[in-house]
Amino acid sequence: MERSRSFNYWTRSAMIAAVYVVLTLIFAPISYGMIQVRISEALMVLPYFTTAAIPGLFVGCLIANIFGGLGMPDIVFGSLATLLSAYLVSKIENKYLVPLPPIIINAYVVGYILHYVLALPLYMTVLWVGAGQAIACYGLGLPLLLFLEKRRHIFE
């Protein structure tokens, strides 16, 4: 029984990572750069339902960032920002606050990465990344959360 539960956990995690990568790459023109709406960030609501989403989102983001062209700062720190955001999401009880950690953390971390790598003004990169995250996490993620909440049994 315990082995089956562990297998289920890592299988779900791998599936979430794969979906994150595929969504990011399919929508690559809007997934990377200063002005970005990473559709895959809508999946950041999943830790609200299952902790298996935490490593899945981290690995998915890490793989997606390898294709992003911003190099090691984005691969390392962008992925760690997703890991921290996913962990914080898993601790939030109010569903309407669930999108906030990825919006705030990525606005600053990814904004700083873009500032550092592309020499763009920091305030602009923070604002643009934050706006894109708000679209992905509240505009797409919250409706996804509300949809999945009615089907919570799939996470059991």
Task: Please characterize this protein's 3D structure.
With 156 residues, this protein is an all-alpha fold. The protein has six helices and no strands. The chain starts with a helix and ends in a 7-residue tail after the last helix.
As a percent range, the share of helical residues equals over 70%
The CATH class designation is Mainly Alpha
Assign the CATH topology.
Answer: Arp2/3 complex 21 kDa subunit ARPC3
- Which structural category fits the helices and strands? mainly alpha
Order of helices and strands: HHHHHH
Tell me the major beta sheet.
none
Contiguous uncertain segments of 5+ residues: none
Which value, in Å, is the CA radius of gyration? 15 Å
Give the number of helices: 6
Annotation, overall tally of beta strands? 0
The CATH architecture assignment turns out to be: Orthogonal Bundle
Spatial gap, N to C terminus: 14 Å
Question: What share of residues are in beta strands?
Answer: under 5%
What does the average pLDDT come to? 95
Q: Which outline best applies?
A: globular
Count of folded domains? 1
